[in-house]
Write a structure and sequence with these properties.
- The chain is of the alpha/beta class and 466 residues long.
- The chain has 3 domains: 138 residues, no CATH class; 84 residues, Rossmann fold, CATH 3.40.50.2300; 196 residues, no CATH class.
- It contains 18 helices and 10 strands.
- A 4-stranded parallel β-sheet has the order 2-1-3-4, sandwiched between helices.
- It is globular, with a radius of gyration of 28 Å.
Length: 466
Amino acid sequence: MKKVDLFFTAALVPLDYLTLLASAAAAYSLRFSPFLEELRPILFNLPFDEYLRVAAIIALAWIAIFALSGLYAIRPRRLAVELTRIILACSTGIAVILAVAFFSRELFDSRFIVLAVWGLSIIFIIIERILIRGIQRSLRRFGIGVKYVVMVGKTRSGNTLHDFFDNYPKLGFAVSDHISIFDDEAKRRIQKLKKAGIADIILLANPDTDRKEVNAIKTFSDIHHLSFMYSAEIFPGSAVRPIIHTLAGQPVIEVPKTPLDGWGAIYKRLFDIVISLILIILTSPIQIIVAILLLLERQGGILFGHKRIGQGEKPYKYFKFRSMIKGAHKYRFDPEFIEKYGNMREGTPLFKLEHDPRVTSLGKFMRKFSIDEIPEFYLVLLGHMSLVGPRPHLPEEVDSYKPSQKRVLTIKPGITGMAQVSGRANLEFDEEVQLDMYYIENWSPWLDLVILIKTPLVVLFNRGAY
């Protein structure tokens, strides 16, 4: 762990304390402002110095709550996770204020101050944390706080990670070397980089590495005080937290398929029903206009219907607004058509054209803004699809899937998903499957929310949409 990271982690404690005091002072000022005093006269006496002394004690209790909530973890978390913990921790802190209120009649009488402290503390702490992250990112531009990575394994996975680190320097990782195999020469190169101060992490990016070599790299990293990370392909292992049973006096580990079993599935279904109903109502004017335009176009019906494969390999009737000429589907099996226009996904179970001649003028516009997918909200409401999940699968595509790739059929297909917001049509099929498997194994309500927020941005900027 770099000293600069330790510094910022330690600095969060006094900064949070001062921010909490600032939110308390702001709440007091707000309550005693002439505007609010005129609306609701003050019927209690609460001197500011007395109030601030109580707030200083409560702020210490809040810092303890923050610590128990994991807000001072050495390793940074995703912003969405941190924001959630801030809201929960500040809400827990209100319970502390209410407990103190039993011993302070004045504080109890000022319910507005209690509620204002709650809301302002959340806002102030979130702003403070975002500013700290911004400062850290700015410092990384000057090489301060950058973690230098030595990658082992020039595989597709390794090259993808290398490109990712190069394209997103704000994350704080920089590749100082990328070697093929871990041999004596590699050890000497890493030692030189360590002495030069540009080696902090060894990242093994070869899933075919045997256990003996993994142990050798791990031992080397420990001896030379380097962090060790590895990137495994999505199929050999599972990211889902294992469940440990004790059977016949010995531990037996169960690896769940997805967090979407049990209450996860219940929550996701209720979320899908509520949001799909809202979206159907909000988009109803667009649906009516598109239906009229499609009828006037006279290329076929309003909807394009086809069979898709859903959760558990069960087929369902899929439909969306028609965006192609009549009988367009048959051309994907026409050798002359394929020879003339090609297939961007050749060698995979998928069929994709960058400039598809089968798409109508109205269809191009609808696809540009994903308007053709609006009827999928009804499929979500019916339970055939979900708002977030792997893309819908064609039967002929599923027939060509490898056994490992069929794991994407574990859950319902979605209108949007990890693959769609991470490149959409630009992704290779294997990359798409890996992203879908990451979603399946790491699902959370926050992950769904983040994907749904990103989706309109992807659609507006047309990234990967054909």
